[in-house]
Amino acid sequence: xxxxxxxxxxxxxxxxxxxxxxxxxxxxxxxxxxxxxxxxxxxxxxxxxxxxxxxxxxxxxxxxxxxxxxxxxxxxxxx
Length: 79
What we know:
two-stranded antiparallel sheet; 3 helices
């Protein structure tokens, strides 16, 4: 699960740049979740947020991505 606190977001776009699945977009100079279902909970966004505006709670996202993409061979179709 991923949570973004808009009040502390600086609009730097670092989270957008590091997200491997395009989960976050910028709107009105603030990060927002647009495709939460794509999140693999890698926490790249949280690790690169210098304002502690993003919190990622690890769940089954990474495991699901490994099973889906590496074991079953189902590749992502994200743009």
